[in-house]
Amino acid sequence: MLAKRIIPCLDVRDGRVVKGVNFQNLTDAGDPVENAKYYDHEGADELVFLDVTASHEKRKIILDVVARTADDVFMPLTVGGGIRNLDDIRDLLNAGCDKVSINTTAVHDPYFIRQASERFGSQCIVVAVDAKRVKTDMMYEPEEPWFKDPYLHETRLRIPANGAAVWAISTHGGRKMRRIDAVKWSRKMEELGAGEILLTSMDRDGTKDGYDIELTRTISENVTVPVVASGGVGTLEHLREGLVEGKADAALAASIFHYREYSIHEAKEYLGSKGVPVRL
After folding, report:
1. Does the N-terminal or the C-terminal CB of the chain have fewer CB atoms within 10 Å?
2. pTM of the predicted model, to two decimals?
3. Is 51 a catalytic residue?
């Protein structure tokens, strides 16, 4: 069995790490390169940078952060946020990141994932799926025009009559809901060339109540590419649940590592003691 990965996530704004809740009341949390060095020393398997000010004029800032990180840190680095075209991907890869994470652009143009994977290889194309359990009173954005495409139409959200759990795709930090079935969408993204799914439960994100295990397991069982579980970690046991019960290939967490509630080493020791294969 392949070793499970532990991945810290850093939100980066204007070249600095920031902390907050739902991007509100953000406070400075230091230099991203120094944070990356810390996690590298701790034994993290990978690191994710989320560029939270990813407008065109800010892109050069995250490129500089990536380049400085790549000079000093040798674990794989994924960057997400504001990737709109193939040039953005090329620039990030040239700066030194290993993978890019794409969400909104994939929703607006699913075939962009095919173009990206054909140009750069599926191994570096991650599709971020921000999923939210469906409620009948949810407000959805207008339907995607590509629903008319027979190949993509099957991803349209349909609420089952038997009351079974379904999840819709969300964008903009869970604030905008799309009529897209998260499970079918993940499967379609794999077909179009995604090499990994970064799955976040928007219902659990920031709650510290643990991953949405049913969601994580359902996605993991419906794709063959690796799934990274995200959203809701508050304890080391939550990491184990996501990797074992949720069948995820990797566990991403932010707060428990940022606030030094647990170290990467402690997390791996705990997982190893529970029989979860990790790189110690």
Report:
1. N
2. 0.95
3. no
